[in-house]
User: Which sequence fits this backbone?
């Protein structure tokens, strides 16, 4: 599974070990943006321990640099989304170019952001 082809169905059924083995960061959050999934790759790349991120509002407390019209607002405006966009992370680090993949569907419990560095 890679960044461009992994599906929402894959993410919804994937176990912890498989999520942690992904080559890209993965964050899964509820419709009210509370983080429920924070894979090992994202923890390593961001320097944030999953225990400090799980249960916390993603856009308000974890990734404030994504709390804008390009990322957070899209989850509000688009109930069905599968979009890849170039982005620059700036919080807690020097500016880092990444690709984000935003995934959501009314049929899935969680919404996802994939982060490819």
Assistant:
């Amino acid at each position: 599974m890679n960044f461009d082809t992994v599906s929402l169905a894959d993410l919804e059924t994937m176990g912890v070990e498989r999520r942690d083995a992904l080559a890209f960061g993965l964050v899964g959050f509820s419709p009210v943006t509370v983080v429920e999934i924070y894979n090992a790759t994202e923890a390593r790349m961001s320097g944030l321990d999953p225990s400090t991120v799980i249960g916390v509002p993603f856009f308000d407390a974890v990734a404030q640099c994504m709390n804008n019209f390009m990322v957070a607002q899209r989850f509000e405006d688009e109930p069905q989304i599968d979009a890849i966009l170039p982005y620059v992370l700036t919080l807690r680090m020097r500016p880092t170019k990444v690709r984000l993949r935003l995934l959501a569907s009314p049929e899935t419990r969680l919404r996802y952001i994939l982060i490819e560095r």
